Amino acid sequence: MISAHTDVVGSLLRPPELLAAREARSAGEIGDREFKAVEDRAVVTDGEMRRLSFQSQLTQAVTGFGEWDIDAFLWGQWRGDDEIGNRNGERPANLGVVEKLARRRHLSAEEFVYLRARTTRIAKVTLPSPSLFVNFWSPERSVAAYPTVEGFLADVVGILRDEVEELARLGASYIQIDAPHYPLLLDPETRRFYESQGWTLDQWLDRGIELDNALMRGLPDVTFGFHLCRGNQGSRWLVEGGYELIARPIFERIAAQRLLLEYDDERSGSFEPLRFVPDDKMVVLGLITTKRPALEAPEDLVDGIHQASRFVDLERLALSPQCGFATSIVGNKLSLQDQIRKLKLVCETARRVWPDAELRKD
């Protein structure tokens, strides 16, 4: 980050050599040691390079989830030009936690420690929201281990809270919680799945926020971000709609200090829901899309920021891409050079809007 007025959501495009090494390891052509060496070379700023998906470090580090593959993170009715994940949009039949969860290793500590040794900048670590993992609870497959979704999510929270505490102990000062499932509640079709797991819309907002806050409270030396989007895989998305339905409970009650919000096109609605943001929070406007290579006009970005300032003071606004460039190994349809141009645009625009902001040296 150059200042508090810029940010990056997290994931970056995996370079071709890393994707090739991942396939070679899966095929048994290289071992873990050789693969780790390729991974290390790929990591400049972490960008979730070591992950299959932005949320897969939990399932990779914890036993009990049963059989799963990348489709566990890609199923759903994706909208856009090309199909990815399950073609019929259905939940994988074998998906479901089958045993009590047990952590084999830390989730993201390796990412942070490696990056911390290679930069003087603030190293951000991203973690998934606990209730995102309701996808892995199944009334058919999971009841022997977890009779209720509440019991399952309680163990997920415990593991994620331990990870947050370990990251804080290691010196992490900025942790982002990714929560794309909240905007999925905006659409009746996707909301139907979440309500089928046992909670109403109000319960998802009330209890889900409680679980998120359990990760963040009591750590005054850590800044927390909270990211909302409407799905992001292969330049596709899952739902459309403004934040109005979910804005007040999330914006007012979430314990995070920074709200990172998708706002790159009309699918995100107006800035009006920002009126619910308390004065002690910053809003990071995701005005720059990661789904298309075309570069946004700087004048349009400046105008968008000033429109948002009708609801949140300009000094409590920041700019970022709307989501990651590759929230799984299925990256969006941009080149590495497109990605670089987008990230430079974040900084250049921020300098125009906040010319007197002090550049970070830490």
Write the layout of secondary structure elements.
Blueprint: H1 16-26, H2 32-42, H3 56-61, E1 62-63, E2 102-103, H4 109-116, E3 124-128, H5 149-169, E4 174-178, H6 181-184, H7 188-196, H8 201-216, E5 223-228, H9 244-253, E6 258-262, E7 282-288, H10 298-308, E8 317-321, H11 336-353
Parallel strand pairs: 3-4, 4-5, 5-6, 6-7, 7-8
Antiparallel strand pairs: 1-2
Helix pairs in contact: 1-2, 5-8, 10-11
Overall strand count: 8
**Quick check: average pLDDT?**
91
Judged by helices, strands and strand pairing, the structural class is: alpha/beta
Largest sheet: 6 strands, parallel
**Shape assignment:** globular
CATH architecture title: Alpha-Beta Barrel
Order of helices and strands: HHHEEHEHEHHHEHEEHEH
* Count of domains: 1
Overall radius of gyration: 19 Å
Describe this structure in words.
- This protein is of the alpha/beta class.
- The protein has a single domain, classed as TIM Barrel.
- The chain is 35% helix and 10% strand.
- Strands 3-4-5-6-7-8 form a 6-stranded parallel sheet. A two-stranded antiparallel ribbon has the order 1-2.
- α5 (149-169) runs parallel beside α8.
- The radius of gyration is 19 Å and the shape is globular.
